[in-house]
Amino acid sequence: MNSLDSRMSIIIGDVWNDCVAVAIDVTALGSLESAQADGEPDLIVELIDLFLKDAPRRLANMSTFLEDGDLHSLSREAHCLKGSSATLGALVMTKLCQAVENIVRDRPWEIARPLSDLHHEFLRVLEALSAERHNRTARLPALR
Amino acid sequence: MSFTIKQPLLRVLIADDDPVIRCLVASSVKRAGYTPVEVNDGREAYRTLQADSNFKAAIFDMMMPFLEGIDVIRHMRTENRLRRIPVMMITSESDPKVMIDSFAAGATLYLPKPFTPEQLHSTLGMLFSTRVFA
User: Fold this and answer.
1) I need a surface site. Which of A36, A54, B111, B118 has the fewest CB within 10 A?
2) Rounded CA separation B133/B131 (Å)
């Protein structure tokens, strides 16, 4: 194994070790409440809804870009998804997006695995955010 | 005798193709007492500014489709009517060169993602109190 191989193994290993972690850091998600504007709909519910609508579209685009061999566009989608994942506290998903960006840059022929991991991680995030949304809307009569 | 009351600049242009970040920033802008005007990409931001310069400030994501944030800033700094608008750049790019390039292009402030609402709030406070001299 050369030095680049071992470095990439460490990156992938770190990401896999994190997979035992929770999909969503609810403290980070909850902290977004302080950006809530008066008289507006619940911000966190709105952010969750936007993410759950936008992320599947970006993941589908990434698969299409992989099929088309357009790794530059694939990397741009991963970059954008990284920002919103980090904001909502999806820490493992954030690291996987970064791993996709790194692998596109350093070892593009190995892109399939982190991309597949990212798709799987999104399912965990989807479940966690849906549960969080349900909990919040149960506390907000106007949103029921 | 008639008076023309000059309306205070209360609107803030926000350009980001990520709806989550755009919504979060827009909420913070509303919370600070300003009216967000949201667009999806750099080209839309450019077109909006071509038609209307009545903005207190602008907030751009660095990496956007069609036209990047830094290119919109470069354009703004070449036009007298847009030059006075302070611009905050937000990005999840960790390369320090991006920050240097942003300031060189004319960005007023720079906020790396992810940011907390408190970091966003304090940076917006600085942005709204900034005067750019043409």
Assistant:
1) B118
2) 6
Which residue, among B14, B20, B68, would best test binding to A if mutated, counting the most A CBs under 10 Å from its CB?
A: B20
Strand B109-112 relative to strand B87-91: parallel, antiparallel, unpaired? Answer: parallel
Residue A77, token pair as written in the block: 């989608």
3-state secondary structure of A137: helix
Closest chain B residue to the Cα of A73, Cα to Cα = B65
ipTM above 0.90, yes or no: no
Task: Provide the pLDDT for residue B132.
Answer: 72
Chain B interface includes A84 (CB < 8 A): yes
Measured distance CA(A127)–CA(A143) in Å, rounded? 20
* Exposure class string for A47-63: b at 16+ Cβ within 10 A, else e: bbbbbbebbeebbebbe
Q: Using the predicted structure, report yes or no on whether residue A3 has a pLDDT greater than 80.
A: no
- Inter-chain residue contact A43 with B24, CB threshold 8 Å: yes
Nearest CA in chain A to B115: A87
The model's pTM is 0.87
